[in-house]
Amino acid sequence: MTALPVPPDAAPPLPAGGADIDLDLPYYLETGRECALFAAAHARRLPVLIAGPAGCGKSRFVAHMAARLGRPLVPVACHADLGSPDLIGRFVYTGSDTAWADGPLTRAVRIGAVCLLDGLGAARRDVIGVLGSLIGRQRRLVIGATGEVLEAPDGFMLVASDTAAGARPAPLPPEARQRFVALRLDVPAPEAEIAIVARESGLEAGRVAPLVRLAGRIRAMGTAPLAGGVSTRLLVHAAVLMTGGIGVERAILAAIVEPLAEDSDMRRALLAVVASIYG
User: Fold this and answer.
1) What is the radius of gyration, based on Cα positions, of the chain?
2) Assign residue 201 a region: left if phi > 0, alpha if psi is -120 to 50, beta otherwise?
3) Cα 16 versus chain centre, distance
4) 81 exposed, middle or buried (CB, 10 Å; 0-12, 13-18, 19+)?
5) pTM of the full predicted structure?
6) What is the pLDDT of residues 204-256, one digit of tens each?
7) What is the pLDDT of residues 95-127, one digit of tens each?
8) Are 102 and 89 within 8 A, CB to CB?
9) What is the rounded (10 degree) CA torsion for 116, 122, 123, 126?
10) What is the 3-state secondary structure (H, E, C) of 214-276?
C-alpha cells in the first residue's frame, strides 16, 4: 500500500505543527504527504489502516495527527486475548448492584476521539466483527448488551495499525481491509532517521549518524527478524543511553544487539556488524 497523492484542496488546512513550531505536539517528521492524507480521511469520516514495520513511528504519527486536529486520542493495544467486550464495555459489579462500564472504543465514539487500534491484525475475529457498522457508511456502534446504538460524531476517527514486516498471528480479512483507506509508513531515509533520533534522544547528529549506518547494514542482511527488526525506536533507545553517559558499545549491546539476537550465532553476526562500523 502506498500513499495516494492528495490534491491541495483535499483536506482542510492543518494547524501548524512540528517540533520547531509547537513543542507541545508529539514530535513527528513527515516523510511524504501522509499528514495531508490523514487529514483528508478525517474530514471525510473515513477509517485509516496504517501498515509498516514495527518501531517505524506509526503510533507517534497518529498521536501527532490527533493533536494537530484537536482531537483526543484513545489508544488500544490489540492482542490475541482482546475480545469485543474489552473494546465495547461490560457490566461490572458496584457493591450490591451492577452498572455498565464503557470500553475504550465506546468511550472514543462518545467523545469524538481518534481511536487507535494498535496491531489490529493480532486481535480476535470477534473484535474485527464489531467494527463492521462503525467503519461502514452508517458509522454506528451497536452495544448489544444494552441495546444502545451510538452514532459516531464528525470528530470520531477509527485508525488501525498493522505490522507489515515480522510475524503476526493473521492478516486482516480482505473484507475488513477494503473498508479502510490504506497508508504505508516505512523506515525513514537515512537523513530523516538521523534527524528523528537526534531530536528524540538529544544526541548530536554526528554521533547518531554511525547508529543509522549500523541499522542500514543490519537491515541489509535480510535475515528475519533483522530485516524488519532494526527499528528507529531501537536506535532512539541506544542514543538515549549514550546521552545518559553509557558507552557506545554497551549502549548498542543493550538497545540493539540483545533485543534482536535470538541465539549465539545471530549475536556474533550482529557484533561483527557493529565492529565494522565502530572498529
Assistant:
1) 21
2) alpha
3) 22
4) exposed
5) 0.82
6) 999 999 999 999 999 888 765 565 568 999 999 999 999 999 999 999 999 99
7) 788 999 999 999 999 999 999 999 887 888 788
8) yes
9) 130
10) HHHHHHHHCCCCHHHHCCHHHHHHHHHHHHCCCCHHHHHHHHHHHHHCCCHHHHHHHHHHHHH
